[in-house]
Amino acid sequence: MRGRRRAILRFALGLALAAVVFIEVVPRIASYGSVAHQLGTVSLAWGIALAAATLLDILTTPLPWQAVIPKLPFVPALAFTQASTALTTVLPGGAPLGMALSFAFLRRLRVDRAQAAFGVALTGIWSQVMILVYPLVGAILVFATGQLSTSTAVIAAVSAVAGGLIVGLAVAALRSERAARWLGDVSARIAARVARLFHRNPPGWSGEALVRIRAERLVLLRRRWPRLTVATLANQLSAFVVFALCLRAVGISFVNLPLSEAFLGWAIGRVLTSLPLTPGGIGVVELGMIGTLVGFGASHQHVVAAVLLYRGLIVLPTLVIGLVSLPLLRRLAPEPDDPS
After folding, report:
1. DSSP readout, 147-216?
2. Model confidence over 163-213: pLDDT tens digits?
3. In this predicted model, what pLDDT tens digit does every residue of 87-101 receive, in sequence order?
4. Between vectors from CA 77 to CA 73 and to CA 80, what angle results, nearest 5°?
5. CB distance 290 to 304 below 8 Å
6. DSSP state of 239
């Protein structure tokens, strides 16, 4: 009961923070009237391009999972990734919640426990490391122009250190049974806390389970990591394509905001999405992206329009598809193998 109250309080505080951002902070940067006017200038051609890019972003979400679990069909993989993302958008918890939900949905799709745990751990590590490295890449690109601020440099450095820490833990787990056991026990405790919030049984993995999976799947990882890397990049960078198109659609040119600066603003937004501050990072992500891009000297109303358009295209379609997919997961599960 106490854990549930804390979750409700955390959720309420997250909503309050998001409300403060949209009611008090964003209008001080650009009025919603000017933003609406700017969005009204988006042409039909740009609208079609944005719709196509958004569809591409959605269709690439199953690729990392299929790289790790090849027998997982495309449609069920698409449904469970959209459902998991939709729930992490409306519930507090950030990346740990997303991993726990992904494990539960994979089990619902009749993926065995070992494969599900392996898939969640591997895709989670790959995704999070890349998300944390993007700000460093963006900072290096912007630094080449001599316009990198101290605050963005600090964010990039902290993200890079966190990404390096995750890589170090993953490498240690692959090289050492003791490290794998510790990492498995820690992740199991986090997953158990998330499960209690939803009155579910805790996932059935532990440090010993990760040690067994490590021994069984090490050869498989060595064979599939290139495909997983390419699939993860394709999935994540498709979202940047959507953002870049949003910037151009509202009238921000390459001269006023080079792609390097746009990439850094987007990368900081990706890092903030992973933090369990508000449901889906709503409010915090927008403020981080807007603040970064405005700091580069881009027009306030254009930046706010582009960021809100981008977030709408990333969040709303996935929210609709995910919530529609949620009750269909059982039906989409492959038929069990015939023992005869």
Report:
1. ---HHHHHHHHHHHHHHHHHHHHHHHHHH-HHHHHHHHHHHHHHHHHHHHHTT-PPPS--HHHHHHHHHH
2. 566 656 565 555 566 666 666 666 666 666 655 555 555 555 555 665 666
3. 888 776 666 677 778
4. 145
5. yes
6. H
| Residue found under tokens 């009237």 | 33
Distance in angstroms (rounded) separating the CA atoms of residues 238 and 234: 6
Conformation bin of residue 326: beta by default, left when phi > 0, alpha when psi is -120 to 50: alpha
Per this entry, what is the length of the chain? Answer: 340
The structure tokens 């990333």 sit at 314
Read off the amino acid at residue 33.
G
Alpha-carbon Rg of the chain, whole angstroms? 21
Secondary structure class of 110 (helix, strand, coil): coil
Tokens linked to 304: 């706010």
DSSP state of 279: G
| Predicted TM-score (pTM) of this structure | 0.81
CA distance linking residue 210 with residue 188, whole number of Å: 10
In angstroms, the CA 180 to CA 120 distance is: 15
**CA dist., res. 32 & res. 22, Å (int):** 10
The per-type count for the chain, helices as H runs and strands as E runs, is 15, 0
